Amino acid sequence: MRDTKESRLLLVLLIAIAFALITVDIRGGQNSPVDGARQAAATVFGPIENGVSAAVNPVGNAVSAVRDSGERHDRLAALEKENAALKARLGSDDRSRSRLKQLDKMLKVAGQGQYGIKGAEVIAIGAAQGFSWTITIDAGANDGIKRDMTVLNGDGLVGRVTTVGPDSATVLLANDPDFTVGTRMESSDELGFASGQGDRPLRVQLLNGKADVKRGDRVVTFGSQADRPFVPGVPVGVVSRVDPSGGDLTRTVYVTPYVGFTKLDLVGVVVEAPKKDPRDEVLPPKPKPTPTPTVTVTATPSADATATDQPQQ
């Protein structure tokens, strides 16, 4: 429509009519004279409005879903990050607890044996030194470590120091085939020499071919001259097998070591020997034997037997 004087006059007239209808509708309330027209308009235009709404609502819902999805993704990412941090902290706490337990056991052994020790961490195993059963520790000459010092942990004898650098040292483990240590049997004091056999029990040659020894007997280090390379009284292991005595000058027994050589972490190097031999003081308490349950059976005489025992009249 062109902007003319007539068109402007028509627009003003339509606006005036619209205001008049609105006024009449408001004053009429539920009995408004235009209610019928409004209902007719709703009948005509309602389906069109519903169709437009049906077409537009999925778009709005999709936009809302994308927005909510982004928020959910952010919340999920935050939760995953928090869970990862908690797991890392838990793992760290587990390792800390494990190390604290190892340290407590090692200090207890050192206290019982009166050993002056230097704590160290295992930082490498085997490969750097060839095919021997060896470990590398993070303590060396700068820490007072010297060659031929005894190495132990909270379980017992680990080995001896063989090579020393400024800040690290190599330890030959007690289960290495080239390892030999003088031993003493608990209580009986029978002496012998233990040799490593890799992942098998230590082989101990007792000097007395007629020594009275049995499974479960325990072994400690005998000690070396001037306490190098071995100090006395360090727990070695438990006798797990005894070869029959064949009249030889020596007798062979096999000892399962206390130390697990495949899971070493914290160790202690004995930098100061005890003033006196601790004997068997460092050995762990003996396990208490499991009591064997006993069953008491009480015989109840039968009725026939009771009748037979009655005196006859």
Please give a structural write-up:
The protein is an alpha+beta fold. The protein is 35% helix and 24% strand. It is built from three helices and twelve strands. The chain has helices spanning 5-28, 35-113, 303-309; strands at residues 116-125, 134-137, 150-152, 157-164, 169-173, 180-185, 191-197, 200-206, 218-221, 235-242, 251-257, 266-272. Strand 6 (180-185) and strand 7 (191-197) form a beta hairpin. The N and C termini lie far apart (145 Å). Residues 44-50 have low confidence and may be disordered.
Give a brief rundown of this model.
By secondary structure, this protein is an alpha+beta fold.
Which descriptors apply to this entry?
313 residues; alpha+beta; six-stranded antiparallel β-barrel; 24% strand
Which value, in Å, is the CA radius of gyration?
46 Å
**End-to-end CA span:** 145 Å
Q: How many alpha or pi helices?
A: 3
What's the β-strand tally? 12
Given helix and strand content, the structural type is alpha+beta
Shape: elongated
Strand order of the largest sheet: 1-2-5-4-3-12
The average pLDDT value, as a whole number, equals: 80
Unreliable runs, pLDDT <50, ≥5 residues?
44-50
The SSE string, one letter per element, is HHEEEEEEEEEEEEH
Strand fraction equals: 15-25%
Query: Helical amount among residues, as a percent range?
Result: 25-40%
Largest sheet: 6 strands, antiparallel, barrel
